[in-house]
Amino acid sequence: MNIKKNNVIKFNNGDYLVIDVLKHKDNTYLYLINNDEFENDVSIVKVNFEGGITKYSPIDDEEEFNYVINKLFLEHKVEINEYFE
After folding, report:
1. Which of 23-31's residues contact partners 24+ apart within 8 Å by CB, and which partners?
2. pTM of the model
3. Which residues pair with 20 in a beta bridge?
4. Is 23 helix (H, G, I), strand (E, B) or coil?
5. Distance, CA of 31 to CA of 42 (rounded, Å)
6. Does residue 32 contact residue 18 with C-beta atoms inside 8 Å?
7. Burial class (CB in 10 A: 0-12, 13-18, 19+), 65
8. What's the average pLDDT block by block, 10 residues per block, for the chain (85 residues)?
């Protein structure tokens, strides 16, 4: 499955908009926001392909999670700075 920014995927019993896609060491990570106008929840998940089925799981490894968070901040630092100005 080729997941791209602005795709809507089913996750956690809801529809989530893909805000960003990160790739690192043969792994794919998604930064998601709930696509329902009344929900205000975000998630960062790891994409796993098992038996032809795409599954999304939390990142259990602290070092891996920190890498993904830092990468997101670096890729969006302009938008983050603009937000806080």
Report:
1. 24/67, 24/68, 24/71, 27/64, 28/3, 29/59, 29/68, 30/3, 30/56, 31/72
2. 0.82
3. 31
4. strand
5. 7
6. yes
7. middle
8. 87 87 91 80 88 88 91 81 75
